[in-house]
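PROTEIN DESIGN WORKSHEET
SECTION A - STRUCTURE
LENGTH: 156
TOKENS:
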């Protein structure tokens, strides 16, 4: 899977967090058996930028922790199947507030790595069609999310 990381964090993003994101999202992609040509972008921001995004796209005038913008491209039926198979699978864009990572880790009493990992996997699963709108959907998504985090070593 190809991951493009954009740093809008004004110096908050560490090399450790970059490596964690690359490794954990690769593991999550493998767990979902995504094709090797899957790709997504991850943008790390601060609360003011996240507040703007949340207000513009969700109508909520406050910073949030993670926002996922899934790309649901329909197959181009004019292309031969063999050419379609060669095109990258663009999952979409993931935005995470590093301010919220820090705040929530302190509030919840676990490591910043655990919180960052949780938000990465949570957003990634949303990009892949998972949600938590119903109790059954929530149970499935959160179970998979916890399995990925535990396998990586980010336990509660």
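SECTION B - SEQUENCE
RESIDUE ASSIGNMENT:
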């Amino acid at each position: 899977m190809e991951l493009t990381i954009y740093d809008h964090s004004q110096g908050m993003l560490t090399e450790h967090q970059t490596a964690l994101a690359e490794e954990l999202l690769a593991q999550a992609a493998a767990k979902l058996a995504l094709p090797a040509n899957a790709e997504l972008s991850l943008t790390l921001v601060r609360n003011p930028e996240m507040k703007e995004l949340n207000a513009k796209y969700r109508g909520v005038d406050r910073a949030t922790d993670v926002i996922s913008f899934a790309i649901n491209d329909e197959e181009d039926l004019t292309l031969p199947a063999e050419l379609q198979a060669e095109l990258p699978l663009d999952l979409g864009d993931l935005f995470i507030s590093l301010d919220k990572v820090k705040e929530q880790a302190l509030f919840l009493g676990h490591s910043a790595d655990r919180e960052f990992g949780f938000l990465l996997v949570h957003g990634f699963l949303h990009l892949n069609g998972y949600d938590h709108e119903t109790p059954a959907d929530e149970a499935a998504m959160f179970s998979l999310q916890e399995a990925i985090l535990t396998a990586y070593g980010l336990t509660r």
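SECTION C - NOTES
The chain has one domain: 2-152.
The CA atoms of residues 40 and 86 lie 16 Å apart.
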